[in-house]
Amino acid sequence: MANLIPNIIFGSHLDVTSTQILGCGISLAVALYLAQRWMDGNKQSSPLVPYRFPIIGSTFEWNANPAKFIKDATKNYGSVFRIYANGRVQTVVGKDLVRNVAVNDDFNVIEAVHDDFDLDYMLRGGKQLDLKLPKLITKHITPNLKAYTPRVVRKLNESMDNWLGGVQDYTTMEDPAIMIQDMVANASASVFVGEELCNNKTFIHTSKVLTSDVGNMMSKMGLIKLMPRLSTLYQRHACPGRFFAVQEIKTIVSILIRKYRIVRPTPAVSRSIKINPKGPLMFIKRE
């Protein structure tokens, strides 16, 4: 190939060394041109954040401070843009559009996840569900939330009574997140698998452990590992099931606040909004 191209263009009067050098140079130039066109895309593609070094791209700037990189790129190029970092071109979608992308039939977030983690193989021996989970949620559960709401609220109240029903005046809970997880799991199960199975404590415990383990594993792979900020955006906006759970948590907080005054037994806990609140909570029964 290195000899063929210059012979066609310049004839056979070049010596062997010149022919090889010229052929390699032309081949390299063509390869770089094709690679650049592939990275730049066409006029309909989202804008590519400019970079100085062709092979390295924006890797150094991205790895140094992903949050600042995303903020600056969003300001300059909008909520959808592409970056060339860590050896590949990646499309970044802002929080205002990421859920639309995730639930759009032209895209398939579940198939993208299957590239690294095949849930069908683990749970069903490779057999796929006839109805995909995103469609199941968006077409059958989300439009019927009003029908499911009474059941969810009833299960939330039952779970709360199991945890706090015996409280006379007040109680201190070392890890309130466990109670919240239990309430969410029971209420979600009443919708997804029915009220009979949601009363099976073994099933509820297994589903909570599986959800936690899979979530921890997914947070360590792909873009979520390279872009920690996208984890929050995905959990809040991309996953309809996550959105459903968020609504449950809001309902839980509303129910708890109506029945209990919630305070921290140690006022010295940091109030910084950048630090996740940890430690025990005191539930004081309202009169």
TrEMBL record:
InterPro entries: Cyt_P450 (IPR001128), Cyt_P450_E_grp-IV (IPR002403), Cyt_P450_sf (IPR036396). It comes from the Eukaryota. One of its GO terms (molecular function) is monooxygenase activity. Its cofactor is heme. Keywords: Iron, Metal-binding. Belongs to the cytochrome P450 family. This is Cytochrome P450. It comes from Jimgerdemannia flammicorona. The lineage of its organism: Eukaryota, Fungi, Fungi incertae sedis, Mucoromycota, Mucoromycotina.
